[in-house]
Structure formats: C-alpha cells, structure tokens
Design brief:
Number of strands: 15
Structural class: alpha+beta
Number of helices: 15
Biased composition (Polar residues): 1-26
Oligomer: single chain
Domain DM2: 320-397
Number of domains: 3
Distance between the termini: 18 Å
Biased composition (Low complexity): 27-41
Radius of gyration: 48 Å
Protein name: DM2 domain-containing protein
Region (Disordered): 1-41
Length: 538
C-alpha cells in the first residue's frame, strides 16, 4: 500500500537532532504479542479543540483499563491497534481541518472505501495526556538530550554554531588560544623547575671541619666523696661551609653554617670513630651510618668517662651526589683529574680527543689513541660508545678522610684548634626561590572563580542558542518543524518504551497490510468511528 503525503519533507532548521522521517504506526499482531500487549497508545495532540483533546484522553484511559482486565492477547492487540489508528486519524483530521478545512482521503488496496491519509506520528503508544508535557517544553528538552550523545566539548570552548551567530566571539576565541599558549608555557617551565628542585645544580664550596674536645671533673679530690661526679670528656666534630669574601678566622669555629646549605652530616656517608681499645675494651668503635639516620645533623658528639689522655682516629667517608670515583694513575695523568663523576670523566676524554684531533677520519665513531691513551685503553683505536665500559677498571671508590685527634684533659677547655678543609659540591642555593616560584604558578582561587564564571556564561549562551534555534525553525516552517519534532520525540520514546526492535520500514510496504489481522482491524476501526464525532467521507 502506498501513502500520499501532502506535506513534502524538508530539512528541519532546528539542527541535526530533528530529522523528518515519518513512519506509520500500524503494528502487526505478532509484534504486539512479543511485547505482551504492553505498548501504550499514541496521543500527541496539537489541536486546540478541547473536545478532541478530551476524546484522546478518554481513549488512553480506555486502553489502560482494557490492559488491566487481562484480555486475551489477540483481542487486546486488535483493540490497541484500533485505538491507535483512531487517535492518529483524529489528530491529523483536526490539524488539516484547521489549515484547509477539508478532509483528504487515501485508497486502501483491494477496497473501494476511501479514508483520509494519516500523517505518521513518531510517538510510541501508551503515553497518556497526564504525563505529556507541552510541545514548547519538549522542544526545549530535545537539544539537551541529543547533545548528551555527542562528544563533550571543553566547557570554555564556544560552539561553532554560536560563533556564527555572535561575531564578537572571535575576540574571545583569540583570548582563549592565547591563554592556552600561556598555560602550555607555564607547564613547561613548571616541569623545568621541578627538575631543578630534584636535581639542583651544584657549586664547589669549601667545607671546614673542626675537631675538639671538652672535659669536666678532671681535678681529683682527696678524699673522694660518694656523690662526686666521675671525670668525663666530650669530643665534638662540627663543620660549616665557608662563605666567599668572609674571613674564616673571624667567624670562629662555633658559628653555625648558613641555613641555605645542607647540614654537616649530609656530606658524609659513614663516620667511624676509633677509641683506645685498652681504655675502652667494650665499645671502642663508634659508627654512624647515614642510612640508619636519615635526619641530617649539625655535628657529631662522643661522650665518655675517663681521666687519661689518648689519640682518637676518625674516618670520614664522603657522600658524593652523584657518585664520584678516584681515577687511576694512568687516567689521572691524561686528564689531570683525581676524583670526579663518571659523566665528567667521559666528557674530559672527549675534550682531550677533540683538542688533539684524534678522531678517526675514516670512521668518526672511533678515535685514535696517542701514547697516553694507549696506556689507559691498551688499544690503538677505541669506539666512543665503549669508553664508559673501558674506563670502569680505572675508576675506584675514593679514599676516606682520616683524621687524628688527641684527647687532652688539662688546660683550657675546649681543647683543639685544628681544622680541616674539604672541597664539596653544594646545591645551588635557589631552593626557596624555586619553591616560591613554583607556588605562584599554581592556580589561585581568583583564577578558578573566573574560570567558573566563564563556564557558567558559556552554558547560558548555549542554552540561549538552542532556544533561538527552536523559535527560528518554528517561524520559518511551522508544519515541517512540528512534524520533525514529533518524529524525533517519537524515536526517543520508542527507545524508552523498549520498541527499538520495531521495523518501521516494513510498515511502508504494501505486503505488510496483506496479513490476516488487517481486515478485522479495519472493520473495528470503522465501527467505532461514528462515536468519535468526526465526519469523514467513506
């Protein structure tokens, strides 16, 4: 069966979310049985006549009542189909009557009866008027529902549709692009600052180490009283970084190091103090290990009972970060370096080769060895990639620092004026400045408030754009616009009612209406038609 539509389909001005794709709502008996008689009757009334609206509501109530009475599946489906056709026929009759005042007709195959053409209404059956919102309200909700299925754009980004409507948005877009470039630059700088904080650049400073001791109760009293405290001595090892341009003699050994530098114990991996085993047989070896005491200390202190003088041996193992190595004699003669890191040793070899033009002309990945390098590598030609591996036998752990201090228990206290200078690598004192700069790059509450205000404005603009598109589309072509709206809402409600499996394309074919249930459905529809009060030609 073919259906004639007096209103040709047009593209809806409302946007992609509404497509005019009418489909008939005649449902087969088999399809109705699969859905257990649960589909609701279609009622979307656009007429302003109160009688038609009330009649449509009565049909919906009668349909609900019939479902509640548990009728037989075949009778229930036929009644539902009849009510559906009648509701659709009345709705379209009144709509066409309002515009043209006529009652168009259509031809049924194999029948001489003429009926009015039915405009396909894309709403699933069973939605009563009590739950039906106004067409205007439904139009406002449709774009938002469609946009949920699309990929979500950044909240601060204007849609292309909005940009076409608002020419002033070009300036905002330029500012947004500029902001993104600034944010990218700040992010790169932030990463650089974080790397600098983790691996700060080092400068070579002089660490001055002081070793001295104090004593107490060393004067013997005859006779000794039971409450007298025993004689004791205390040895202290402290140190500080010497400031440039400051006289270290005037500063004094008791002056602490600057807070911008690491504490004294941070420069050592292990400290071993050996006392005289004859005087202290039980605990003559004292070991401090940095791995056991992660908290840095300002110095080391050893206190013991005793009234005899002796020599103390102190062994200091430096904590180099990164690790430093002592070079062999052969390699030290080539580079002039005694202790350094592996990377600096490799760089020094490269500069040595480059300065003496020892790079192989035939293969630049190799360099030729002069007599000095031949003593180190034992070859006439060495590949650059193998330098790190070949210098490993020439690198060893640096020798610890050995100090000796004599514990004196007479004279002025403290005792000992010896000091020792050691070159150490100190992180460049910019830690606080970098941390402060890093904190300023973080988003402040003011910026977050501005971003929130911008996002709120963008959402309002998008809502107004949807409203504008709605009214503009309705003003340009009301009939096609409403038809597209009905079709769109119908598809959504079909999905909500579980009718997504319905094949609307079959209902457009004449073979669909050659089934046994069609004749009975038409007879029922014609018998109930006079009760509706709508006069049509037959």
């Amino acid at each position: 069966m073919s259906m004639n539509n007096n209103n040709p389909q047009k593209n809806s001005p409302f946007g992609n979310s509404l497509q005019t794709n009418p489909s008939a709502h005649l449902q087969s008996q088999g399809q109705s049985q699969q859905q257990s008689g649960s589909p609701f009757s279609t009622q979307f009334q656009l007429s302003q006549y109160a009688a038609a609206h009330a009649h449509a509501q009565a049909i919906a109530q009668a349909q609900s009542k019939a479902q509640a009475q548990a009728m037989a599946h075949v009778q229930a489906n036929h009644a539902q189909f009849q009510a559906q056709l009648q509701a659709q026929g009345m709705s379209i009759n009144q709509s066409h009557g309002h515009f043209s005042g006529g009652s168009p007709s259509f031809g049924l195959a194999n029948s001489g009866i003429k009926r009015m053409p039915q405009k396909p209404v894309g709403r699933p059956p069973g939605v009563s008027n009590a739950n039906t919102v106004s067409p205007m309200r439904m139009m406002e909700l449709t774009p938002a529902q469609r946009n949920k299925k699309k990929q979500k754009l950044p909240e601060k980004q204007l849609l292309e549709r909005v940009a076409k409507i608002l020419p002033q948005s070009a300036l905002y877009t330029e500012l947004l692009e500029f902001e993104s470039r600034v944010d990218a630059a700040l992010a790169r700088k932030k990463i650089d600052i974080q790397d600098a904080i983790k691996n700060p650049p080092c400068v070579q400073k002089t660490l001055r180490i002081y070793v001295f001791n104090t004593f107490a109760n060393q004067t013997r009293k005859i006779p000794m009283k039971p409450n007298d405290e025993p004689p004791t001595w205390t040895m202290k090892i402290i140190g500080r970084i010497l400031e440039e341009g400051m006289d270290p003699e005037q500063a004094g050994m008791m002056q602490g190091s600057s807070p911008m530098y690491p504490k004294f114990s941070a420069f050592f991996k292990r400290v071993t103090i050996s006392l005289d085993q004859r005087l202290y047989p039980d605990n003559h070896m004292i070991v401090w290990d940095a791995s056991r005491t992660p908290t840095p200390q300002e110095g080391f202190e050893v206190k013991r009972k005793g009234d005899k003088e002796f020599n103390v041996n102190i062994r200091l193992e430096m904590n180099y970060m990164p690790e430093k190595y002592k070079l062999s004699i052969a390699l030290m003669e080539v580079l002039g370096i005694e202790v350094d890191t592996r990377s600096r040793v490799i760089a020094a070899i490269w500069h040595y080769v480059k300065a003496r033009k020892l790079q192989n002309a035939d293969d630049p990945s190799y360099f030729n060895c002069d007599p000095a390098l031949r003593k180190v590598f034992g070859e006439d030609k060495v590949k650059f990639a193998m330098v790190s591996q070949k210098i490993s036998p020439h690198l060893s752990a640096p020798q610890p620092i050995h100090l000796e201090h004599k514990i004196k228990l007479s004279g002025n206290s403290p005792v000992g004026s010896a000091c020792y200078d050691v070159l150490v690598d100190v992180p460049f004192p910019v830690q606080r400045e970098l941390n402060a700069l890093l904190a300023t790059t973080e988003k402040t509450k003011e910026i977050e408030a501005c971003d929130e205000a911008i996002c709120t404005s963008i959402r309002k603009i998008n809502e107004h754009r949807k409203r504008r598109a709605f009214f503009l589309g309705f003003s340009q072509s009301p009939v096609e616009f409403i038809d597209a709206l009905i079709e769109s809402q119908g598809r959504d409600l079909k999905l909500a009612a579980g009718e997504a499996s319905r094949n609307a394309e079959r209902e457009h074919r004449a073979e669909f209406y050659n089934q046994p249930w069609v004749e009975d459905a038409v007879i029922r529809y014609l018998n109930r038609k006079p009760a509706t009060g709508v006069h049509g030609s037959t």
